[in-house]
Write a structure and sequence with these properties.
alpha+beta, 434 Repressor (Amino-terminal Domain), 9 strands
């Protein structure tokens, strides 16, 4: 069955189950779900088991036609002047009033806001000049390893893939661009996390 990768990741977030946990429930080798995501396809023989694991009908979920965006989709603010790498990040400080530079309608996306991407550490998947739709993670103890997050600490403001560390008190911040080294980050250093829900590619 063909799947929408973004929609499947969002489903796992909503069900509060990680890719690793799903693999364990289904008795699959590690990283098998990542293979499905990369191929944008789930073998039909696993559909019934996934339905039971998630307590839903995933065929119907992926075949649902989104409701009219005009009547049902909310406008998502875009803060085009915010530098995500800067020392001050007013977009998550509730004491600062920041006016969006634009608004977008993104069907089937629950993002809080949209920010511009600066730099090339996540190239070629996410390029400088792209935009990312992000949603705040309220419970930072629940991390979906292998997914892309905006990580906020006192020292870092980064867009990275978060990977599992052999030390459970830490995470690995990974760049798609091999020119950048991985960063070992203690979990207790994370001030805020935002899950990247959608990448809006720049127009060439």
């Amino acid at each position: 069955m063909n799947i929408d990768t973004h929609k499947f990741k969002k489903l796992l977030l909503e069900k509060r189950i990680s890719q690793k946990e799903l693999e364990e429930i289904l008795g699959l080798p590690r990283t098998r779900v990542s293979v499905w995501l990369n191929r944008k396809s789930i073998p039909n023989k696993y559909i019934d088991e996934i339905n039971r694991a998630l307590n839903m009908d995933i065929v119907r979920y992926f075949n649902e036609v989104p409701k009219s965006t005009k009547d049902n989709a909310a406008l998502i603010p875009y803060f085009g002047e915010v530098d995500i790498t800067s020392s001050e990040l007013p977009f998550w400080n509730k004491n600062v009033v920041l006016e969006p530079t634009a608004s977008y309608v993104l069907p089937d996306t629950l993002a809080d806001f949209i920010l511009p991407v600066i730099g090339n550490s996540m190239s070629p998947n996410i390029e400088g000049g792209d935009k990312i739709a992000i949603k705040e993670v309220k419970d930072t103890s629940v991390i979906f390893y292998g997914c892309v997050y905006v990580i906020i600490t006192e020292d870092y403001r980064l867009v990275k893939v978060v990977r599992r560390h052999q030390d459970e008190s830490k995470v690995i911040l990974h760049s798609y661009n091999n020119a950048y080294d991985d960063i070992d980050l203690p979990k207790n250093k994370i001030i805020k996390m935002f899950a990247v829900q959608e990448v809006l590619k720049k127009m060439l």
